[in-house]
Write a structure and sequence with these properties.
The protein has 292 residues and is an alpha/beta fold. It contains eight helices and twelve strands. The strands form four sheets. The chain has a six-stranded parallel beta sheet, with helices on both faces. Helix 5 (162-170) crosses helix 7.
């Protein structure tokens, strides 16, 4: 049986880190970016799976333009809903493991304590609705070989993200107003990539039950608190960061006020949850400085 891996959306920030992590373990892997594989094309998906015959597919391909999805929901649904369904159908035919990366936006963001993996969903944005369709397709078509890993607040060296933006703004702004009424878990893509790979390995070994997992860092903060931590890492005065509320940055898509996810399910797979977000930021920071 094949032991190779296929990573879709391989040109993105997370896809790059998944490939790096697989290489570190000596795993045979192929990465396909969106030019190499359109996951919304049934023929393209079928050809890719037949050609590469992977044991595991990690789907990092996604429509991530949250605000644009509000007026282009049909297009977002093709990528976030139809794409995972096509991959799941191809995996079902061959017994392939599929790991689908999803999002905290499938929840309504009104909780007061971390969302467990089995919490009721209730997306309030087009983006969240389309991602939920993808989750449902994977879980229904692949009850024993389908994995959904929800994540949030991602940053990494391989693409544009909040940390790199704040590093740049610190150098040109005397003060920064940052939202303090949205709570979440900043998550380094390298940490998430590690868990995706370990989950796939566990799936092949029969030690990781299929289903939903939450791939976010431990702890929680607000965008304001996150920015203060970034300033501290830069040796800048965190008092230059000023708290404000979401109304000051009105956007087409509603942002969840509370995006903190629980991580209890990892113990069923024998894998520890991701570390605290501050510890991850400390390790990630040198690579982010170089990328900015």
């Amino acid at each position: 049986m094949s032991r190779s891996w296929l990573v879709t959306g391989a040109g993105g920030m997370l896809g790059q880190d998944v490939l790096t992590r697989l290489d570190r373990d000596g795993e045979s892997a192929v990465g396909l970016d969106r030019q190499a594989l359109d996951i919304t094309s049934p023929d393209a998906v079928r050809r890719a799976v037949e050609e590469h015959n992977p044991a595991v597919i990690v789907n990092c391909a996604a429509w991530t333009a949250v605000d644009d999805a509000e007026t282009r929901e049909g297009e977002a649904l093709r990528v976030n809903g139809d794409g995972p369904r096509l991959l799941a159908e191809a995996c079902a035919e061959r017994g392939t493991v599929l790991i689908q990366v999803s999002t905290d936006y499938v929840f309504d963001g009104t909780a007061g304590e971390p969302y467990p993996e089995d919490a009721p969903t209730g997306p309030r944005s087009a983006y969240g609705r389309t991602k939920l369709v993808g989750e449902q397709a994977v879980c229904s078509l692949l009850p024993s070989t389908g994995y959904v890993v929800r994540t949030a607040w991602l940053y990494g060296a391989g693409g544009g993200n909040f940390v790199r933006t704040m590093i740049k703004l610190e150098g040109v702004k005397d003060t920064l107003d940052v939202v303090d009424d949205q709570r979440g878990q900043p998550t380094w893509t390298a940490d998430l990539a590690d868990r995706l790979v370990r989950l796939g390995q566990g799936a092949l070994a029969g030690t990781a039950p299929a289903g939903v997992y939450h791939g976010t860092s431990g702890g929680e903060t607000t965008w304001f608190g996150f920015t203060q931590a970034i300033f501290e890492r830069l040796g800048a005065d965190p008092e230059r960061v000023r708290p404000t509320d979401s109304a000051a940055f009105a956007r087409p898509a509603p942002r969840p006020a509370y995006s903190v996810l629980g991580h209890d399910r990892w113990k069923n797979a024998g894998i520890e949850p991701i570390r605290d977000w501050r510890d991850a930021l400390a390790e990630a920071f040198p690579s982010l400085l170089g990328a900015s």
